[in-house]
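Fold these two proteins, one after the other.
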Amino acid sequence: MYGKSGNLAEARGVFREIYASQCVISWNTMMSACIQQERDEEALALFQEMISTGSIAPDNVSCVLALTACANLEALEAGEAIHAIALEIGLLVIENPVLINCVLHLYGRCGRLDRAAAIFREHRGDESLVSSNTIIGAFAQHGRWKEALAIFRGMQIAGIRPSKLTFAAVLDGCANLSALAEGRSIHALAAALGLEQEAVVATSLVDMYGRCGCLTIAQGIFDAMPAKNKNELAWSTLFGAYAHRGRLGQAMKILGRMQQEGVKIHPALFVSVLNSCSHAGMLEECLRQFASMRLDHGIQPKMEHFGCVIDLLGRLGALAEAERFMGRIPGGRPNLLIWMSFLGSCRTHSDLERAKRAAREAIALEPRRSSSYAVLASVIAAQKP
């Protein structure tokens, strides 16, 4: 009760009172409370303390909770030890899909994809939607899209019905691989299963078709979405589809429609907006959108927003204005990426003095980065007759 209500101190006190009962359920309850409160390290410490008593054997729930904590912490070594304990006491059997899925999630989260794939294959007889989604998500998280799509094909052969989350993951894979033909096939399957209009699936379809250059189809899918599903992510995805293909005019129309519809605009979208303006060389629009962040949306520009404007000013040769803009960055200290961008602009426009200042700042932030010295040397060399 105390754990669920968030009162972890009370829960801990009650737990210590019944500690002498040596009941595994009380240990599990306390671990669960810690995980709910995002206190994964404490949950893991409790598991290890329970094991150290020598009188309480962990059960299935104990191992599930401990592995969950390890995955959240990306604590691979501790997770491997718990995996070994589960094997030793015979918990990892084919009829235990929940624990198997936790093991898959641990190795996937920690980047041990080959190990996760091996375990998935070992338990083929227990292949389920959850375990399939877990392994697909693990491969997708680490950019191994081909393997994710291969697992998806295996699901179809095994007769496992994909969920909307499955479709979102594999459509993302198609987008990253520019695999339009496979994306169309997956789209057809989603439609056949009645999932095409689900918000996460429809948004993934807009992204896939947009990144594969099929903007008319992407727009059509967005237009067909129910109004309730046209959330901030869906609008942002449509904007990104046009911006990614260099259709800045249409992208800005989408932004205007978002503002008219009262859609809340996330700060991350403004990075895309400003970056698009920067690459198109649209200084006036870039500055207008930068000002709009604070004035119209109440968003305080962060380092990455300043970086987009500074990059554009630098590439246009407005180096003095770019320097002034750097002085407006909260905290007054540009990061390495901004200094390197500015240094590159100084090289392009043969401004040795500013290049020296930029190089000093970049070197102070990361002394071992050789590119700072190389760019400065090229500027100096260009000044010689």
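Now the second one:
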Amino acid sequence: MEKRKLENERLKKISGAKAQVGQDKLLSNNTNDGGSLSSSPSSNNNNNSNLISGSGGGGKKLVLSLPEVSMCGKLLKTSKRYELTESDSDYVVTCEKHIFESHIVLQFDVTNTVDSCVLENVFVECDLDAVEGVELVKNVPIQSILPNATASSFVILKQKYPNGSIVNTLKFLIKEIDPETGEVSGNDSSHHDEYQLEDLRLKPSDLVLPTPITEFRNVWESLAAKGCAEKKQVFSLSKNTIPAAQAAVLEFLELGPCEGTHRIQDGDKAKKHSLLAAGAYVKNVPVLCIVNFSPDETNQIIHIRVILRSPSEEVCNALMLCVG
């Protein structure tokens, strides 16, 4: 890591004017009609036959443009953006999880902040050994990323009750830009490199759509009358207020609060609280939840009791993996 930083500092010290001239020449001389750098990426063993080049951050519109996505079913939701590097890294990477009926598509937005280097054949290698319920379908890399530009690569996973942390490594071919001519260096001076990223957690509740309902108690009792599955779990969180613990539980389960029960009487001073929440798992399987909160004597620990009901016992079991 230190060696890479020293090398990048050396490159960044090249005259700013020359570097800009070089980049302008590179843009004018080496782009195709689509505006992306024309270059032949090196082959690899990741079945990366399709190459994407261009600006990242397109989110839903960009992922839906992928031909491979047609097999994934309906797009249900897109997660928040996760930062997988520090914001001042040489290569800044963020990730969004696009949730489909049968697949998860991970969109990795990669920014090249090194002024005098072009990155080619850029992809994120995902180690899935510690993740249950997923299977790699395809890794779609980026053809090239110019200096101070962003592009998106994709990893397509088949899913069923995913649970675990993905170990991610950014891999690429790095080529220097000649500041005098604006040309990319030849293959003799290029080299492969990699950059360790933060892990990314996949959890069963990624596949839940929050769907608040009215008359929660009636629906809750009707599920019991129909013999639906029920699971209970008691655990504690190191939080000093019930509102903080409630926010964590809603993030764990990704359910929607019902009947205004997310509004806590007495706020941070509350000594007990009950939350009603509901959602729909993929293919519209309903999930209802009652969560009871109470602090310990020190007000440093919140004790939590979760009760889940759903027509699917598999869904109940999977969602309980998200808490505790």
